[in-house]
Amino acid sequence: MTVKNEKTEEKKQDDSSPGEKVSDKLPVDHVWGADMYPERKGTKLKQSWIKTMFGFAERESLDNVRCEANVYHCVKNSPIVKLMMAALKSSGCEIDIRRHISCEVCNTLVTGGYDSELNQVVICQNSAGSKGLVQAALLHEMIHMFDYCRNKLDLKNIDHLACTEIRAANIGHCSFMGSWFQGFSSPINIKATHQNCVKNKAKMSIMAVHKVKPEVAEAAIERVFTKCYNDLEPVGRRIRRNSEDMMRAYTEAYLYGYS
Ligand SMILES: [Zn+2]
């Protein structure tokens, strides 16, 4: 699950809540993963006369078209998304974008999700409004998809969930710049800053999926951290924001057999 990040990209999208932290907003006591994606599991938000009347339906379909265009753009142009597509294909889990990626209306706290029952990536058309956010959500959810493909991931097992969330945060979200902005610690100890970012991001995602106390999520993270933090497959390196890493990872993909 890609929990919405309050920093950087979103700032451009939403200036209405400066400085507000995800951790302040997550209603962790009563949120289950399934609640985040109301259009899943047959509770599709059908078009009603009231939605049509106030133009919500039109807005939704515009969001959907824009989301699908952004997904298509990333699949065609983003080096890191192309690398993930190639890695999934090499692992025997080829992605058909119409079958495996779905743009939907979600709870606004998240920008994406992975539905292991349907083996589908959900991109939240109402909260992932830019190409950058769609790319970040695709990378994050495709790491879950890759883990599901490679390791028979059981997302009901909190240790499995912790591991894949650590990997997704580590490879994608927690760049040096990202953790710098989030103010976890000084730049003197970059390694600790990065690890704290990964742990924090993974904790938020676990708590949004499972109805567990922070201590339970933290304990699961600690149990699997070393092993999962050091597993950078299939990207081979941590992606730093505004760096050449993304392109480098993609151009070196052939070294790992993902060409
Ligand atoms: Zn996740």
TrEMBL record:
Domain of life, per UniProt, equals Eukaryota
- Give start-end positions of Basic and acidic residues composition bias: 1-15
Q: What are the start and end residues of every segment in region (Disordered)? A: 1-25
A single GO BP annotation from the record?
A: mitochondrial protein processing
Name the UniProt key words of this record, in alphabetical order.
Hydrolase, Metal-binding, Metalloprotease, Protease
**Pfam families for this protein:** Peptidase_M76 (PF09768)
EC number(s) reported in the record: 3.4.24.-
Q: What EC class does the entry list?
A: hydrolase
Task: State the similarity comment.
Answer: Belongs to the peptidase M76 family.
Know the name of this protein? Mitochondrial inner membrane protease ATP23
* Organism annotation: Harpegnathos saltator
